[in-house]
Write a structure and sequence with these properties.
The chain is mostly beta strands. Helices cover about 0% and strands about 65% of the residues. It has a single domain, classed as Porin.
Amino acid sequence: MSSAQTDGEPVLPAKVHHIEPLFIDLVRDLGARKGEKEINIGANFTNTTTYGQYDVLAEYEFAPINRLGIEAEVGFSFYDGFNKSSVTPKNKMEALKLAAQYSFYVSPKYKTTLAVGHAQIFELTDFNSYDSSLFVKEIVYSPFFVAAKRWGDNFYTLILAGPEFKHKLQTNYTDVDWQFNSSFHYGIPNSSHFIGVEFNMELVHDKFEMTMRPQAKLQITQALALGIVTGFPLTKGDEKFSSFFRVIYQL
C-alpha cells in the first residue's frame, strides 16, 4: 500500500501491532513503515558443562521503504573454561549478519501479518587465527517465513521458521539445518510492557534441540526499552541455564 496525500498529510500504510520475541528478534517490525529506525545492544551468558560463554551484539535496523526492513548486526563471543582438561573455544568476533524482511500480507481486519526474509551470516575465525586461517570460515544462507497474529487486544502469537544452509569454506561442504521458533506474549494493558515465552527449536545434524525462554520487556521511555530473557534447555545437551539482555532504542 503506497502513501497518499490528504490535506497535506501522508496516509500511512496499514500496520498491525505485534509483539516480536526478544531472543530471536525480527529484522524490523512487521508491516514496517518507511523511515523507522532502531538500534539494539544485546548481552548473553550461557553456561555449559565445561565453559561459560559471554556474547555481545550490536545491530541496526531500518525501513528504506514501506513494509521492507533491513538489518546489519555484529557479534562477539568470549569464553571462560571450567575444566583444564576440556577444550574451550577461543575468543572471536562471532559473525557479521545482513538481513532483509518484507511483509507481504498485512490485515488489520484479521490482526494478522505474514512476511518472508533472508539472512546472510558470515561466521568468522577466532582472534588468534587471523594470520593462519580463513577470516570467514562459514557462510550461512537463512531464508525464513514469519506469521504473526494478535488475539483480542492483549494476546500475541508469532512463528518464524526456515532452513539454514551452512557452507564451510575450508571443505567446500554444505550442511542443512532447520529452525522453528514460536512465541506467546501478553501485553500489559495501558502500557508498552509485555511478558511472554519463546521456544527456540533447531534440527542440527538430525538432532533435535529445544530451549524455552521466558521473557519480559520494560518500556522505560517512549524510545528506550529493556528486554530480559532467561533460557532453559528442554533437550539434553551441553548447554545449561542462560540469560540474555537487550537494550532497544527507537530512533
